[in-house]
């Protein structure tokens, strides 16, 4: 009996599917197939699923796939799709916002505005889920996700629930890592297949612990102003980003004191194309799927842009996007 059949026979209420095309679950609309995808019915159902999951099964958590490239050879193991699964939001008695990991940024921003809270507008510009924003410490226009976090709820691979505070994490620019107790919070580094060194949180390994909810704090404001802010922010994004074509936002992290887009443009790489993947003319740090791009096209373009910028400027850009899965043989 296959593992998925064993899972299906248990008392799960969510949806388990096999051989799922991840192009439908990533904003680049490129890449391969996931062996299994589970979309839990709610948090309790997710815990039952994890208790039933064979220990050796690789597990990946995906929100809206807006920062994710799944290689063309696909993903072995199970993808947990949290978007539209963990979607509860409420105001707590202390005035904080409790939101589950599957809530999209735009919904969170609108919910805060509805409750006359300010400082949440920036979430509207990030087309990911709260879980993905916590994992990436996503941000824009001077605000970052973890600036708003009071506590998070996480679930381990074995289905154990933890409530953690920001002090439990090392928090940085598009970076978050659980401090390892007993090692003075120090992390071990790692090398990507392309050969440059990144911190562990940027390596796309199967996950041991992930976010299921957070309590966020916002100042009191007024809803009308917050809605105006959201509108202005979205107009700014439409004007500066190639939103008419599939993309994954900024491909590279900004190096200290500079902008990846500036370095890419200065290196003459706007419009550079490999297969269906192209460096956007509108925003040089975006790679768009201009036709039928494969994940290999996109990854090769990422590597070439990185190499050419390094050659031209001496600066090594590090990808912000996560690359998972197997290359096509
Ligand atoms: C048009 C566009 C504009 C963008 N603008 C911005 C921007 O201004 N600022 C910015 O920071 N980003 C931006 N992004 C990138 C992206 O939206 C963010 O990184 C977002 O936080 C990703 O959320 P997601 O739910 O789509 O995560 P996914 O892409 O699904 O996953 C990204 C990573 O987070 C992990 N992850 C997802 N959910 C969880 C969870 N619950 N627990 C633990 N790990 C999890 C995944 O395993 C993966 O490693 C943009 C993307 C696009 C397409």
Structural account:
With 329 residues, the chain is of the alpha+beta class. It is 24% helix and 26% strand. The protein has helices at 3-9, 43-52, 105-114, 130-136, 223-240, 260-266, 295-313, and strands at residues 15-21, 33-39, 59-62, 68-70, 75-81, 89-91, 97-100, 117-118, 139-140, 143-144, 149-156, 161-164, 169-172, 175-178, 190-191, 197-198, 209-216, 219-220, 273-274, 277-279, 287-289, 322-324. The strands form 8 sheets. It has a 5-stranded antiparallel sheet with strand order 6-7-17-11-12, with helices on one face. A 4-stranded mixed sheet has the order 1-2-5-3, covered by helices on one side. A 3-stranded antiparallel sheet has the order 19-20-21. A hairpin with a 2-residue loop joins strand 9 (139-140) and strand 10. The radius of gyration is 20 Å and the shape is globular. Bound molecules: flavin-adenine dinucleotide.
Fold blueprint:
Layout: H1 3-9, E1 15-21, E2 33-39, H2 43-52, E3 59-62, E4 68-70, E5 75-81, E6 89-91, E7 97-100, H3 105-114, E8 117-118, H4 130-136, E9 139-140, E10 143-144, E11 149-156, E12 161-164, E13 169-172, E14 175-178, E15 190-191, E16 197-198, E17 209-216, E18 219-220, H5 223-240, H6 260-266, E19 273-274, E20 277-279, E21 287-289, H7 295-313, E22 322-324
Parallel strand pairs: 2-5, 3-5, 4-22
Antiparallel strand pairs: 1-2, 6-7, 7-17, 8-18, 9-10, 11-12, 11-17, 13-14, 15-16, 19-20, 20-21
Bound molecules: flavin-adenine dinucleotide.
Flavin-adenine dinucleotide binds next to strand 3, helix 4, strand 9 and strand 17.
């Amino acid at each position: 009996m296959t593992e998925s059949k064993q899972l299906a026979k248990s008392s799960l209420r969510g949806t388990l599917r096999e051989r799922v095309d991840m192009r439908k679950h990533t904003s680049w609309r490129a890449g391969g197939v996931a062996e299994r995808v589970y979309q839990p019915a709610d948090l309790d159902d997710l815990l039952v699923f994890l208790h039933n999951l064979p220990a050796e099964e690789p597990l990946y958590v995906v929100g809206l796939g807006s920062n994710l490239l799944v290689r063309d050879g696909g993903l072995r193991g199970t993808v947990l799709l949290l978007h539209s699964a963990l979607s509860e939001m409420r105001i707590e008695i202390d005035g904080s916002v409790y939101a589950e990991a599957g809530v999209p940024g735009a919904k969170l921003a609108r919910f805060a505005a509805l409750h006359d809270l300010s400082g949440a507008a920036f979430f509207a510009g990030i087309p990911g889920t709260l879980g993905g924003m916590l994992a990436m410490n996503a941000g824009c226009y001077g605000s970052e996700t973890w600036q708003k976090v009071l506590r998070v709820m996480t679930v381990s691979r074995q289905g154990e629930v933890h409530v953690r505070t920001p002090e439990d994490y090392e928090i940085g620019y598009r970076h978050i890592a659980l401090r390892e107790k007993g090692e003075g919070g120090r992390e071990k580094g790692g090398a990507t297949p392309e050969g440059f060194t990144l911190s562990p949180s940027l390596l796309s390994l199967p996950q041991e612990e992930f976010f299921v909810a957070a309590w966020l704090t916002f100042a009191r404001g007024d809803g009308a102003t917050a809605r105006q802010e959201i509108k202005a922010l979205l107009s700014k994004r439409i004007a500066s980003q190639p939103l008419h074509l599939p993309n994954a936002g900024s491909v590279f992290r900004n190096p200290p004191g500079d902008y990846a887009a500036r370095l890419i443009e200065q290196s003459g790489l706007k419009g550079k194309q490999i297969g269906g993947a192209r460096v956007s003319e509108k925003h040089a740090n975006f790679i768009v799927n201009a036709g039928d791009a494969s994940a290999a096209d996109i990854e090769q373009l990422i590597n070439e842009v990185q190499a050419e910028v390094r050659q031209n400027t001496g600066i090594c850009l590090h990808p912000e996007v996560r690359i998972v899965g197997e290359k096509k043989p």
